[in-house]
Each structure stands twice: as C-alpha cells, then as structure tokens.
Amino acid sequence: MIDRRTFGKLIGAGAATASLSGLSAAPASAAVPGGRTPAKPGRRTSFGALEQVDAGVLTVGYAEAGPADGPAVVLLHGWPYDIHSYADVAPLLAAEGHRVIVPYLRGHGTTRFRSRRTPRNAQQAVVALDIIALMDALKIDKAVLAGYDWGARTADIIAALWPERCRALVSVTGYLITNRDANKVPLPPKQEQAWWYQYYFATERGRQGLDQHRHDLARLVWEYNSPTWHFDDDTFERTAAAFTNPDYVSIVIHNYRWRLGLAEGDPRYDGLEKRLAKGPVIGVPTVTLDGEVDPFTPAGDGSMYRDRFSGEYVHRTLRGIGHNVPQEAPEAFAQAVLDAGRL
To answer: Which of 72, 116, 173, 323 is exposed most, by the fewest CB atoms within 10 A?
Structure first.
C-alpha cells in the first residue's frame, strides 16, 4: 500500500499522445468510464512459464513478453498484489514491440533470497536496488519503469537516484518516496482509519494475524481499495498464491514497521535513505495516474505532488478506477507506458 497521504477524489486532465493498436486515443480524464468494472471476456488470466534469474541477493522470478531486442519496460506490482496485475498490460506492450519484464518483488511468488543469512529487510531503498540488480542481470541498461503502490515507490526511487537507468516513468498516485519523519505526523481520525493494517502490523498480534490470515486479509484490502472492481475468486486466488512465499510475512511486516519508524533499516543504506528523505525531484519524462475511486488518491488533481516532477509530464485520472490500476484498467495503463516513452 502507499504512504499515509491526504485522501480525496478528483477529476483528471491531459490527453493521450499515442494510441495502442486497435484503440483510439481519448482525453485522459475520460480514459476509463465511471461505474463498475466487470471482467472482460477474453482477457488473459495468467502468464506462461516464468523465468528465474540470480540478481543481487535474490533469485528473482519474473514473467517476460515481447521481443528480446525491443525497448525494455519493467512493470512493478504492489501489496497485497503480484505480477498478475499486469497479465493484460504485458501483451499489449509486447504487441507494440517492447520487451516486457514483470518481476515478483522480494517476499512474493517465486522470488527467493539466495542466502538464509541475508536480513529480510524491506526498506524502500533495498527494494529499488533489487530492481537495479535485476536489470543488470538481464543486461537492461535503461527501461521505462511503471508501477503502483510498492511498485510506484520503487520506480520513483530509481528515477530519482539513478535516472540514467530510467527512460521514462509511469507512477500511480504520483510521488510515493517515503519520508519517515513526515509519517510521524497524525492525520484526521477518519483518514487514519484507512491505514488500520499498518497499525495492526506494528503489533505482534498483527504479525501473527498476517501469518495466519494472509489470504482473507489481502482480500479485505482488495475490496476496500477497489470498490468498483468486481474481481472473481479465480482472479484473487491466482494472486494469493504469491503470498505463500516463505519470506512474505517477514518482508511485509518489516516494510510497514520501517515506514513508521518502528523497525531499523540496514546501515549500509543510510546514505541512500537520507537522500530519499529530502524528496529528490524526478527529472525523467513522467506520466502520473490516479484512480478516481482509489481511497488513497490525494486530493488536488495531481497538484499535491506536481512539484516533484521537473521533466516532461502528463497527469491523468481514470474515472471509476480504484487502487489496482493496471488490472482494473489495463488498456489505459499500457497507453500511459507508451505515452511516457514518447514524451
């Protein structure tokens, strides 16, 4: 999930600069119509055989689509989600000639630590370094990075600290780089209520609850985050399989406790975290997306984070769409990736 931020609904602006084959470009504010989001007949339900590669401290499980020599796109999932958020996005981008990489983040799916001695650390800088290591292992010098939730934060960090590795950025909910001091400031009670799981995870009871009820807890979060998305049981179960990873609980708990200042990070990354705490401006070409009915969308039509992006920039709001933007609106998400690469 994203950082504690001001909530609210908004309407979007902007226009698409390119269109997917067979799809017409539409004003960004109308990219997805309002109302409920039913599953579409013929949509992909899964990926084919997954790949595995040693990358840094991990052996990373990932899906790949498209030509090996195509311009690279790396798609990053959030919590409590997995690579299947992009099951419909990846083939759209592959059809446009892109090499598409969709990795499981640490603690999810088939990604594993290579050593039992490696700390099960999930602070923000480490997750970003995982993706840099993956790109190195796959010999990808530069890619369009796109994500939501944990994935958006990770993409934001790489774009901010290693812009030479990021050709362009698509970031759902805008600028998500964590400032732990800012996270200490309380929000109004109604807004704090939405973050119940973070406070739950701060306790031993919450850790045990995640361990024992990871399936039902994730489904509850899905339903809250995406109030207009009628996903079926099979869709959820495909993703829930990723939560059986042996390090899932350790990674999720450390991530949220670290953000609230309740768990320490690795001192080796203190320098990176100090840079991130300053809110570095992102200069690569960027498309930001907000789901109109995502309860974590900040108010202001993207204005709350606009000053964090200094390069070519487009902001869009997707009407009737919740938190899991790529799975709820795959065509609009794929269009954003194409457009970001052409800014």
So the answer is: 116
The length of the chain, given as a count of residues = 343
What's the CATH number where 265 sits?
3.40.50.1820
- Residue 64: inside a domain: yes
- What's the rounded Cα separation, in Å, for the pair 317 and 58? 35
**Is 44 inside a domain boundary?**
yes
CA 264/CA 283 separation, integer angstroms = 30
Do the domain assignments include residue 36?
Answer: yes
> DSSP string covering 259-317, please?
HTTSS---GGGHHHHHHHHT-PPB-S-EEEEEETT-TTPPSSTTTTTGGGB-SSEEEEE
Q: Would you give the DSSP letter of residue 210? A: H
Which pLDDT tens digits describe the chain residue by residue (343 residues)?
544 433 333 223 333 334 565 443 433 433 443 333 333 434 666 898 999 999 999 999 999 999 999 999 999 999 999 999 999 999 999 999 999 999 999 999 999 999 999 999 999 999 999 999 999 999 999 999 999 999 999 999 999 999 999 999 999 999 999 999 999 999 888 778 888 999 999 999 999 999 999 999 999 999 999 999 999 999 999 999 999 999 999 999 999 999 999 999 999 999 999 999 999 999 999 999 999 999 988 877 889 999 999 999 999 999 999 999 999 999 999 999 999 999 9
Rounded to an integer, what distance in angstroms lies between the CA atom of residue 123 and that of residue 125? Answer: 6
Distance CA(289)–CA(305), nearest Å, equals 12
Sequence-ordered list of residues with C-beta below 8 angstroms from that of 158, at least 6 positions apart, any chain:
128, 131, 132, 145, 165, 166
Judge whether 301 lies within some domain: yes
Q: Pick from 99, 103, 105, 104: which is nearest to 73 by CA? A: 99
Structural domain of 232: 28-342
